[in-house]
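Two entries, shown back to back:
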Amino acid sequence: MTKIYVNLYTTTNTAPSPWTNNAYGSGSVGVGVLTADLLDDTSSSTGIGLEVTNAFTGAAGSTGIATADNVWPKEVFDVAWYTDGTDGTLRLTGLTNGDSYTVELAGHTSNSSRDTNFTVGATTTLYDSAGTGVPNAPISFSGTVSGTTLDLTAELVSVFGYTNGFTVELTGASGPTLTGPASTTEGSATVATGTGLDTVTTFSLIHGSNSVVQTIDSATATTLNYVARSGVSLCTPSTIVSGLPLEATISAAGVTPYQIQQEAE
């Protein structure tokens, strides 16, 4: 799991860690690449980029709040990028297709009538600005990455729209869960036992002129196909079944297959 914090400020960033890892001031509100490598909450490289694809108008500070009684610090809610005409859009790049995401966004400002519509993916949700009172908690969006980018858009509701910052949490798609019989055999030798290996997509063994191949149909498949390519009489069972990934070597009954191919995602 990867979690990233991004703070959008004016001229001075006073937010505490980990909001200091990715902080962008008023000089970055125009269209362009902010970074090709956001840092996560441990200050480690992620390879995920951030760019502005629709420009913001500027940055504003001093919302006048005394405290932020929720999950974000006061210093993040106290400053924001804003738009007063067209939407402002931030784009995450370098994502992995199929990963799960949770994005949190807030658009607090000192004027309680200046709310902001945020859109992530196909979902739009209103953030209600609390004015000089305690800011409302960030709003959350969850979904699955389609492709390698994800847009976060701020749309003004009345006069101005604001974005204090955002967090994004990414979880990799789990590999297929492979199921099958307790063991498969070639001749009298046990080929594989156990629970299987999640990432194998193709695994081939060869013994003399005989070969046994296991493949998985897709990234979402739940079983491997066990195929005796030739020498069917030496394989048990001799027809396609759901099985387990084959081990690379067998030491039994004088049979020693050799691994010739293994592909993984």
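entry 2 starts here
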Amino acid sequence: MTRLIRLAREAWHALYGLWFAAVFLVCVPVTLLLVTVLPGLGRRRAAARGGARLLFLATGMGPGIDNHRYLPGRPCVVVANHASYLDGIILCAALPPRFAFVIKSEMQRVPLAHYLLRRIGAQFVERFHHGRSARDARTILRRAHVGESLAFFPEGTFHAEPGLRRFRGGAFAVAVKAQAPLVPAVIHGSRRALPSRRLLPRPQRLRVTLLEPIRSAGQTPASLATLSRTRILEHLDEPDLHPAADNPMPVEDGHVETRAEPEAGTKARGPAGI
């Protein structure tokens, strides 16, 4: 009986994954068409948000959004945990169109994703080249200074192992320098829905919990990172993989870096800490 139940569950997950893929293959071309033809960044971002919401609505995933009232009406910085390829689409569905996403530069090698993200004003960040990383950090800071709201995944990437990984410091340096409130956000369910080694999602309700904004005035990037990390961990059902000793540390040029060894097979990260 147990074996039959397991086989039935696996069959259901496979069918659901195929349904998700079918809906995705409908939503993506429509969204790409809209972000191509629509004038104005605001309209293109609204179209992308609509496409993301339609994808999750049609597949029964949600996402539910808790504490929307915590999003300030003024420009702000949102930081969220990162556990799955779904996370960017989830935040796109959850946040208003005024947000620009800060994305690792590796996404520029994925042609359709790069095109869509560029059309909705995403900022790509080089993580491994010192000079380009510093240039990208300055560009992001300029965008914050002119009043743009930004969304970051400060872990930079995700892995199969559950838990909150080391934060890079770029989001917190930007918030402090722009004196923008920082809103921690917790994404629930994405790791279970689509873990790193899984090709298609399985059924799972998604939820985004927005936490009370943290004022940047009087904070350093390191203290802001520590506060936001603590709040995220209070609501995240995953362990802390990098305790306080590994928090971002400010450096002389005003950027932020982490006291971290480069991952095996990679170059050292640049000063942007993003």
